[in-house]
Structure to design on (71 residues):
């Protein structure tokens, strides 16, 4: 699997353009520190596929880790 890391140290949300995942895979959100409770780091196997595979809004002062998973 491949990982895609996004860091936003600013005080504002930022729209990140994401490179295409490897052939035959989709990007899944593995970590988003801006989410609350158990949604910030879902249990292994419960990651959610991104609705938009080409962009992601990273909220202020947060980190996002995407994981490519074969489909």
């Amino acid at each position: 699997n491949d990982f895609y890391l996004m860091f936003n140290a600013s005080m504002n949300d930022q729209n990140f353009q994401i490179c295409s995942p490897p052939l035959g895979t989709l990007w899944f959100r593995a970590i988003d520190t801006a989410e609350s409770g158990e949604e910030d780091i879902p249990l292994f196997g419960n990651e959610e596929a991104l609705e938009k595979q080409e962009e992601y809004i990273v909220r202020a002062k947060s980190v996002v880790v995407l994981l490519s998973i074969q489909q």
The chain has a mean pLDDT of 93.
